[in-house]
Amino acid sequence: MGLHSQIFAFSIINFAFPIHVIESTGFNIKDVYRARFSAVTEKDVLKALDNLVRPNRDEAMAVDARQEIDLKVGVAFTRFQTSFFQGKYGNLDSRVISYGPCQTPTLGFCVQRYLQINTFKPEKFWSLHPYIIQSGYEIQLEWQRSKLFDINVAMMFQKLVAEDGIFEVAEISEKQETKCRPVGLNTVNLLKVASSALGFGPQMAMQLAERLYTQGFISYPRTESTSYPPSFDFHGALSAQTNNPTWGSYVKGLLTSGYQKPRLGTDAGDHPPITPMKSASEDMLGNDAWKLYQYICQYFIGTVSPDCKYVRKKVEFSVGGEFFHCTGQHVITKGFTAIMPWLSINDKSIPSFTKGQKIKVTKVELYEGSTTPPDFLTESELISLMEKNGIGTDASIPVHINNICERNYVQVQAGRKLVPTTLGITLIRGYQSIDPDLCLPDIRSFIEQQITLIAKGQVDHHRVVQHVIEQFKQKFCYFVKKIEAMDALFEAQFSALVDSGRILSKCGKCLRYMKYISSQPPRLYCMTCEEVYPLPQKGTIKLYKELSCPLDNFELLICSIPGPEGKSFPLCPYCYSNPPFEGVEELINSAKTSTAGKNGKGAGMACNLCPHPTCPNSLVSQGVCACPECSGTLVLDPISAPNWRLCCNMCNCLVFLAQGAHRISTTKERCPECDSSILEVDFNKKTTPLEDGSTLHRGCILCDPLLHSIVEMKYGRSFKRGRGRGRGRRGAIRGRGRGGVKMMDPKMSFRDF
Predict the structure, then answer these.
(1) pLDDT band, very low/low/confident/very high, at 746 (cuts 50, 70, 90)
(2) Which end of the chain is more exposed for a tag (fewer CB within 10 A), N or C?
């Protein structure tokens, strides 16, 4: 088959070649090839093009199986948990209470360590610390028994040693030892070092590594292999580093004297270990990326450097039938520790002794100590546990750790330690009380083993997925039946809605005051009606002039979003969560997914989206003209005085009006040229731009020369006269439960209706 009659596909990720995409195109898979390369360099890409391979269906199916299982299981448990607990407790952040087959066992490791710390009971111990003087140096000897947990026995040995008082040199041993150079660097080891030594979280470390890769500075950073392929060009990789001012001279020495063959590591069959591909400087990369690149370079150079060799000397002493010792060491050859100084061995000198020599003890101290609990898991330790238990892959480990941090299940504290929050602890305890398998690594480890068999073509993809989904389905049904056990734990840890928040506004149903709960997710709670009303997740909520919504009699609130993209808008709590007009949902979704000014998940219908024809706070009354940036409408910000402005109800566009004016308001009049609302501006007497010194002026901000000359647009394209003539299609939205009256809105930019 000729070159031009074939389809070429480029893929950098080893397992994720989209077989289903090929099949959907109708092409024969035999005519599809892929170029597999691990570094974005001309040499590697051209070599890959000269050695095209066919996509591996089994490997692709393994990826599909993992994605399908994680999605279906995660969505089912997350939706149920979130809907069950959302709005139930005052100080519970219930925006998303997620579950994941990998995420939850990851959290389980952190909580398990927390419980070990909390249940730890310190125990006292005692140890002998005898001292001798040799060649003018005082030396503390180490006891062969190390420590005892019975003070009476320890005191007996102390008395025995003190009464004898003479140490005899029983044995002197000297042995040359070797500290081996490291094997190749894989993703997991890179993430561990980035967290423990460089101070980067796993997510940030992978982002930096991926950026270095796409810029051609390192090889592909997602790999499980620590073994280099036989064809790897070590000489070329080292030669690229000879001009580096930090380690260039060391590399030149290696090339001159001969570099070592790397140690045999593990070949996972994916990509070679992470390797530098070309030289760089800190100015080229920036501080953070440079730190990671520097480590990768030094690590790679270390893998082809000689081993570190040193001599360890041990002197053993006997007294009264007890044995003690002291040790010293001396480095002979630094080897790879010269380029990786953080792994270097420190020299420790001890005086010379002769066998049979007798030395008088100067003092024998009885040291008292206590056992200490383990510390909270660090990110590096958590990564090791995840790798050991088969939780996640080299590509997904950073994602799982980042997820439990973003969900507020754990908090990263000093030293990159992961401290579980009350929510994280309660969740894991809840799973343990209902079905411990849900938070243990065993099930996930089994799933990963099955997925590996799929990748090898040894088991059927469909049968594995079907079996796992069926198992989790049974667990899900049992979990739903027993959710009250978890709820009892939540009830003990989180405050009830009745005991949370502060009095803010009146309910339109019972006319009693509702409580405002500011903790995420913010909401109003009516104690009489026992109903919860979600509010915007961003911004400050206050009562708005004690005004009421004409539709449901709920008191209006004002939401003020701070910052450079800040805006303010009134809202009715009931309308916000229960939009009363058909068709508004499309606008709400548009506003929710806009680039800025969004209210977050659960965004509803604020007054700047409401098409009520007579309400003085609705879009019909306060809308001015079409937004020049999107399909939204510029609405007068009701509390922006004296820095008056218009805000788009769907994007982050802001238009600043006459600054310092006493009052700016919309009128019922419309511009005959562009159909925008006429504004009435009451200028400050001292700064009025009107020639006769008057302060009151009416006009259109698009067509009136005076008003148009003093408007200023921010966070968008230039605001030109004539832009936005008309206000888009006039939308007709039918009320629901309000008499079914068809209302025409002359100012809405509902262009997609």
Answers:
(1) very low
(2) N
**What proportion of the chain, given as a percentage, has pLDDT over 70?**
87
* Residue 643 DSSP one-character state: S
Q: Are 426 and 490 in contact (CB under 8 A)?
A: yes
Res 752: pLDDT: 30
Are 452 and 464 spatial neighbours (Cβ–Cβ below 8 Å)? no
| 572 in Cβ contact with 554 (< 8 Å) | yes
Strand residue runs (E) in 381-439 = 410-413, 417-420
Q: In what order do the strands lie in the sheet with 166-179?
A: 137-140, 124-134, 358-370, 166-179, 308-319, 322-333, 142-143
Contacts of 673 (CB under 8 A, 6+ apart): 700, 702, 703, 725
d(CA 164, CA 398): 59
HSE of 257, CA atoms in CB hemisphere, 13 A: 11
**Residue 190 to residue 295: CA distance in whole angstroms:** 9
pLDDT at 724 exceeding the cut of 60? no
Residues 6+ apart with CB under 8 A from 22: 9, 29, 32, 55
CB burial of residue 543 (10 Å; 0-12, 13-18, 19+)? middle
pLDDT digits (tens, 9 = 90+) for 51-66: 888 778 888 888 889 9
Beta bridge pairs of residue 326: 315
- The mean-pLDDT minimum among 6-20, 503-517, 721-735 falls in 721-735
So what's the pLDDT on residue 748? 34
Nearest to 570, CA basis, from 579, 557, 580: 557
Whole-structure pTM value? 0.71
What's the CA angle centered on 725, arms 721 and 726, to 5 degrees?
155
Please state which architecture CATH assigns to domain 61-120+374-493: Orthogonal Bundle (1.10)
Question: Looking at 114, 213, 220, 409, which residue is catalytic?
Answer: 220
Q: Do residues 532 and 515 touch, judged by C-beta distance below 8 A?
A: no
- Kindly report each contact of residues 572-575 with a partner whose C-beta sits within 8 Å and lies 24 or more positions away, as own/partner: 572/607, 572/610, 573/505, 573/514, 573/524, 573/533, 573/535, 574/508, 574/533, 574/549, 575/549, 575/551, 575/604, 575/605, 575/607, 575/610
Rounded to whole angstroms, how far apart are CA atoms 83 and 86? 5
Q: Please choose, from the candidates 105, 73, 83, 71, the residue with its C-alpha nearest in 3D space to the C-alpha of residue 475.
A: 73
User: What is residue 635's predicted lDDT score, i.e. its pLDDT?
Assistant: 92
- Tens digits of residue pLDDT in 184-217: 999 999 999 999 899 899 999 999 999 999 998 9
d(CA 539, CA 380): 36
Q: How far is CA 222 from the centre of its chain?
A: 18
pLDDT attached to residue 395? 81
The CATH number assigned to the domain with range 187-306 reads 1.10.290.10
Q: Where are the domains of the chain?
A: 8-55, 61-120+374-493, 124-180+309-370, 187-306, 618-717
Number of residues that this document lists for the chain: 753
Q: How far apart are CA 210 and CA 200, in angstroms?
A: 14
What are the contacts of 707-711 at 24+ separation with CB within 8 A?
707/657, 707/658, 707/679, 707/681, 710/657, 710/658, 711/655, 711/656, 711/657
220 is catalytic: yes
Contacts of 513 (CB under 8 A, 6+ apart): 503, 504, 505, 506, 507
Q: How far is CA 620 from the centre of its chain?
A: 42
- Given a cut of 80, is residue 477 above it in pLDDT? yes
Q: 583-623: per-residue pLDDT in tens?
A: 666 666 655 544 433 443 446 888 988 888 888 899 989 99
Q: Report which residue type is found at 590.
A: S
Instruction: With cut-offs at 50, 70 and 90, classify the pLDDT of residue 409.
Output: very high
Residue 6 confidence (pLDDT): 38
Q: DSSP letter at 198?
A: I
Determine the Cα–Cα distance for residues 325 and 316; give it in Å rounded to an integer: 4
Which class is domain 124-180+309-370? mainly beta
